[in-house]
Design a protein that fits this description.
Layout (H helix, E strand, L loop, with lengths): L7 H22 L3 E8 L4 E6 L5 H21 L7 E6 L2 E8 L6 E8 L4
Antiparallel strand pairs: 1-2, 1-5, 3-4, 4-5
Length: about 120
Amino acid sequence: MKASGITESDLYKRVQAAAEQTLEELMLRLKGLAAGVIATSDGFEVAARMTHKMDASKLAATACSISALGAMVSEESEIGRYHYLMVEASEGYVVIMEVPHPSYPMILNLVICREEV
């Protein structure tokens, strides 16, 4: 139990609920958004929303890896901390960004389909 009386389990549940609510809002507001995944910084799914059949666990793991590479490239290039990464493909885009949190830093992964934008 933490000094504030909130257990790690309670904190995680609150973070997960906030992540789920955030993805729900993004799915409603962003035209063309096919998938949204929020993952722990080590690649485990916290929350996911999808309109297309995709593997949320794989998206979480790959987004984590790509985020780590982006952080290393920006650090080694001495250009400062990276903000987000975007992959443009023939059928759409993937946007990956860190979500800072003092106890649970996370990664946001959004998949946008070009045909729906």
